[in-house]
PHD-type domain-containing protein
Amino acid sequence: MICDGCDRGWHTGCCNPEISQVPEGSWLCRLCAECHSCGEQKDDTDHTQYHYATAPPSKLYDKAAYLATYCTRCYEHFEQSRFCPVCLKTFSEGDENDEEDNEMVTCDSCDYWIHTKCDETLTPEKYQSLCDDEEAKYACPLCAGKVKPIVETEAVKKALKGTSAPCGSCVGLLGGKIKTRGVVSYEDIKVGVPEIKGTGTAEMPSL
């Protein structure tokens, strides 16, 4: 069977649970049937509760760019712009927030909330100073251009600058921490494009 998410082929006997009959309609493999944000997983026979987030085509590339797969709850948060543009993990409002969601700061350039764990410059001391000083300014890795390539090729440079479609595997680091396949525009801001599970990270060839 061919996964409608990643186009990888799977034997029916390798699915969990094993599939005796090819399902009708769309089907997601075990790598794709997982929410990028909360990690919720369905078994290989329940593939209806996931939603794809994509960035629209641009003048620089003519196809929509796949961003991530979300469960219904997290996709609702994503559609309401409650996500960190560096990692694309979503967050809820008010008292529903997880403890880790509370450690976020607003970027003064794009006005989106950023997880402290998504930027190596957001040390506990830096985070506390931003909380204590209302006049302090902060720019997220995307707005500050803190994008480091893992491999040095022209294709990678273009993907990380957002002037071409994202790469198939992770080729850069955002904020010194978060792996990315590239940078694209979404809702008039820059967002990092997360790893497609199972594709790994590009490596520098050994000399």
